[in-house]
Amino acid sequence: MFKLMNICRVGIMIIVIVLINSGCSVTHSVNTSSTVSLSNELKIEIPAIKNIKFTFTRPNLTINIMMKEDSPTEEKVHDILAKVKQFSTIENINEIAKSVKWKSEIYDINLNIYSQSEKIAPIKYSASYFKTFDASNTSEENSDGYQTWSKYE
Asked: In what order do the strands lie in the sheet with 149-152?
């Protein structure tokens, strides 16, 4: 009987740990006036865009863009990035945070541009609210406000 109780305790502890860990990474679809506006602008200006999806997985916003073609031209990628940079104001990003009930800054914005071909790796860019990895340092000196974008290869 004592062994059975210990096994039950261990089982309950494992379930609790799994639930806590899975609760920390819930992904929310994002649909705000600013994301709808950006989606519409991009689809009108760049007809090669098939689909745009905005998601929030704390503490990051991800913008996934699926192209209708195998490999987007450098010009199209540049145009997409320029529009996303214009969109990435603190006001718009705070609107997104509020829509998903996130009470802090969204740390990173990740832009992923996928070609139609699964053989081609996505083109990835990222910008951060903070200049350093220290999110507890909310001073102006540590704030980049999504101004610096980096390409990841």
From this structure: 27-29, 49-57, 60-67, 108-114, 123-128, 149-152
Rounded Cα gap, residues 81 and 8, in angstroms = 53
Cα 152 to Cα 141: distance, rounded to the nearest angstrom: 25
The answer to whether residues 80 and 39 touch, using CB atoms and an 8 Å cutoff, is no
Q: Where are the alpha helices (DSSP H) in the chain?
A: 2-23, 33-45, 74-87, 90-99
Q: Which residue has the tokens 């139609």?
A: 116
Q: What is the DSSP letter of 143?
A: B
* Per-block mean pLDDT, blocks of 10 residues, the chain (153 long): 58 52 76 97 96 96 94 94 97 96 94 89 95 88 94 89
Q: Of the candidates 48, 68, 81, which has an alpha carbon nearest to the alpha carbon of residue 150?
A: 81
Strand-strand pairing, 60-67 and 123-128:
unpaired
Q: What is the pTM of this model?
A: 0.81
Q: 135, 74 in Cβ contact below 8 A?
A: no
How do beta strands 60-67 and 108-114 pair? parallel
